[in-house]
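As the next step, I selected for study one protein, both as residues and as discrete backbone shape codes, as given directly below:
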Amino acid sequence: MSLQSSNAESCEKTVRWDNDKPYSSLNADGVLVGYYVDTVKTVLQRMGCTAKFVELPWARALAELEAGRLDILPGALKTEQRDRFALFSRVINRSPNVLFVAKSSLKKYPLKSLEDIMATDFKLGTQIDVSYGKQFATLSKNPAFLTHLNPIYSRTNGWKMLQLGRINGLIADEATGLVELQQLNLSNDIIKSAIVVSDDLAMIAFSKKTIDTAFVSRFNAAFESIIKDGEYVRIRDRYIPCKTLVQTLGCQ
């Protein structure tokens, strides 16, 4: 695929989505919505472009981006390996992985860091095949830490186990966790702790085979415009149940 023109009449970009609230999902009417969906669509419109959303699992989306069959991958982290085939936007979202705990467990487990669980009988729910960042990976090399981990297949099951007291905590993306707890009516029983497990900053990845640096610069400028006129906050507040802090592009 050759470099596409930035002219409006030919400026259609393929954008990845998957069922991952609050970032992208189909609503009750079958309409694709979400923070990344609305943000990318709005920014591209200000550039005179349109978005063609393509449903792809994460690993497949990375492969398609590298091959040039996908133009835009929202919510990507910049790595040395991805630098080979992708260009990256400025930071567009901050939503760290944090420890959620049962409200009833707060007094029993006054934790200040994740490693503190090793001195307690704290049971930590972790999703199978999910990466929680460098700190967690380092701790996982310690056999004493591993004895506190309880593998789960889905966050929904994890929240229910947490409510029932079968585990004491669960690590989740801050925004995703807040949304899911609200939908499950568990916001009063399970709360976000102050322990941040990983705090990587999300960007937009662009295929080097279909996007050039000039396009990325225009994208960044258009994104800045939605921050300045308040549209960014309006979009984020539609999907994420916390007060937005523009300076960090995350929750206050």
